[in-house]
Amino acid sequence: MLNVMILKFIFIVACFVIAVxxxxxxxxxxxxxxxxxxxxxxxxxxxxxxxQNHHLMGVAVFCxxxxxxxxxxxxxxxxxxxVALIVAPFLIVAIVIVFANGAIFVLAGIYAxxxxxxxxxxxxFCKINKPIVLTGLILFALCDMNxxxxxxxxxxxxxxxFPFAFQLxxxxxxxxxxxxxxxxxxxxxxx
Length: 191
Hints:
By secondary structure, the protein is mostly helical. The chain has one domain (27-182). It has helices at 2-21, 29-51, 55-73, 80-101, 104-125, 130-156, 165-182. Helix 6 runs antiparallel to helix 7 (165-182). The longest helix has 27 residues, at 130-156.
């Protein structure tokens, strides 16, 4: 099982490498910077979740990935700096409080709020490869729904409701990350 998890982690690292190497084919250098920052945080989050099995740290790092994707979606909007100034300190304080109390469900709630904001921002403001970005985010959300279905019974000590949730996590997650990794690429010439 561990070898399969390492292969999955390597796939996520490869998605980050794809995004980094897409610098020469990207539509916008600012978009590329936020995309690669988000994927770098994703690699960090997956390191903690998949390799170290440290859920608090993994979810906390994923929160920062979503902040990067929110700022990517707001890249051309004037309010980007205001959002960053509001979200980043709130997120840091919230994560410190969560780590002090060890409350994974509070952190998961913060993560969910950031993810919903990420989706809303990209629905409204995304200008680069919007169908690819939104498809990646939908698959990512389906992955997270299966994460919830898989982990809730273990955390709440209740019977497993959906036994295939663990496998479905990866069915949705891997393509979501690949789509996000290529979402900054200029696929056709702009006229």
